[in-house]
């Protein structure tokens, strides 16, 4: 476990934090594929990888020749998504 913590710390130190990937991806996958965890867990991992690759590609090409930070881009996508998700859940809670 210590080796995993050190490897994670080193990766974050090099790349910086990447916001909302672990929170947005499972919710989007659940909305698309449903609540079956046998499908949800592996597809969330694959979806998270695809999300980061797409975000990195966009971040590298949006401001040429400089590079936009991936964490900022994922935060711009993730924060509005969660606001919409909270509003949706609040409406469903009041409807009951």
Automatic annotation (TrEMBL):
<keyword id="KW-0813">Transport</keyword>
<keyword id="KW-1003">Cell membrane</keyword>
<keyword id="KW-0472">Membrane</keyword>
<protein>
    <submittedName>
        <fullName>Hemin transport system permease protein HmuU</fullName>
    </submittedName>
</protein>
<dbReference type="InterPro" id="IPR037294">
    <property type="entry name" value="ABC_BtuC-like"/>
</dbReference>
<comment type="similarity">
    <text>Belongs to the binding-protein-dependent transport system permease family. FecCD subfamily.</text>
</comment>
<dbReference type="InterPro" id="IPR000522">
    <property type="entry name" value="ABC_transptr_permease_BtuC"/>
</dbReference>
<feature type="transmembrane region" description="Helical">
    <location>
        <begin position="70"/>
        <end position="87"/>
    </location>
</feature>
<dbReference type="GO" id="GO:0005886">
    <property type="term" value="C:plasma membrane"/>
</dbReference>
<feature type="transmembrane region" description="Helical">
    <location>
        <begin position="43"/>
        <end position="63"/>
    </location>
</feature>
<keyword id="KW-0812">Transmembrane</keyword>
<keyword id="KW-1133">Transmembrane helix</keyword>
<dbReference type="GO" id="GO:0022857">
    <property type="term" value="F:transmembrane transporter activity"/>
</dbReference>
<dbReference type="Pfam" id="PF01032">
    <property type="entry name" value="FecCD"/>
</dbReference>
């Amino acid at each position: 476990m210590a080796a995993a913590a050190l490897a994670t710390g080193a990766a974050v130190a090099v790349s910086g934090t990447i916001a909302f990937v672990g929170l947005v991806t499972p919710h989007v996958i659940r909305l698309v594929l449903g609540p079956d965890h046998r499908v949800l867990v592996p597809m969330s991992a694959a979806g998270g990888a695809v999300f980061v690759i797409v975000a990195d590609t966009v971040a590298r090409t949006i401001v040429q020749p400089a590079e936009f930070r991936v964490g900022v881009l994922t935060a711009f996508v993730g924060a509005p998504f969660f606001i919409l998700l909270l509003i949706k859940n609040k409406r469903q809670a009041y409807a009951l």
